[in-house]
Amino acid sequence: MRVQTYFTKLLQVFSPLPVNFSREYEHADKQQLSRSYSISGTLCTPKDVQLKDVEHVQYLIHGVGFDSSYWDFAVPGKDEYSYVSAAADAGYTTFRYDRLGTGLSEHPSDTYNEVQAPTDLAIATKLLSMLKDGQIGGQKFSKVVGVGHSYGSEQVQALSATVPHLLDGILLQGFSMNAYVTGGKQLLTSGAYSTASQVFPERFKDADLASTYFVTLAPQTQQLNFWYFPFYSDAAFQRNRETEQPVTQGVLFTQGVLMQNATQFTGPVHVVTGAEDWPFCFLDCYAVPANSTRKSIPEYVQELYPAVSDFSVYIPENTGHAVNAHYSAPQVYQEMLGFVRKVLSG
What we know:
The protein is an alpha/beta fold. The protein contains 13 helices and 10 strands. This is Alpha/beta-hydrolase.
């Protein structure tokens, strides 16, 4: 219980800070991290439909609380929630992977100095380079669309700023300019994050997870962060709860450092955020100041892309943060794939 007590105290320190938490709480010196990690990924190439182009791929990065199965979300007897299947039906190859500390990827014991946002970005950059160089599946991909969800979108956005030449377009799902101000802090405090092995002892008791791997405390706190009732099925909610993935203390407190101006990126940018997204829109994505030139909160993302002429936003109604698990998912996928089609056919 001491770990939980200290973590809750950190939340109290973190929430009111107007600046980056790590810079306030940690020593300013940086340490070089040089490690090799085991990362689990899946490359899916359509077989039963006409492949649009063997050299094109969507690069999918999931967010907090999920592993890469977020993109292949499965409810027993249904395939309508799988973005991977929708993409395959449309003839597009996808690559998704479990972030460090989730799913079948490695779970390091140092959950602050190792499993944190800068490490995740370094891994994302390496895997993207491997895709381009033909080191994944033996196929060099000449065109890549980066697709993220929530914290995964923060990584895709950072990739467009740090390695813009490796991406031809990006799609940021469950994202807004509030990624640090409300996104991280809303998710942290309202999720009431607690030690994963205590919340789900039957799942994690033999996983040898450090006590600073966290999950949302209860179904109610997960609902508050990710879901918008009643526009999802009980089966989808239960499936997500049963498969919720842990997140480290390091990721929770450092995720806000990734977002940056992408001054050199010129490819198309598309933002897809549910109208009732809790972490990034506080349940109303149209709640902008009366004198604003923007019509919605996600539209402010354009400020990160001064060199982009093709910027667009889609806000599906009756949809919370976990976009892929709501009833609206099939329609959202078709809209997303319309953007992908435009990027890859251009």
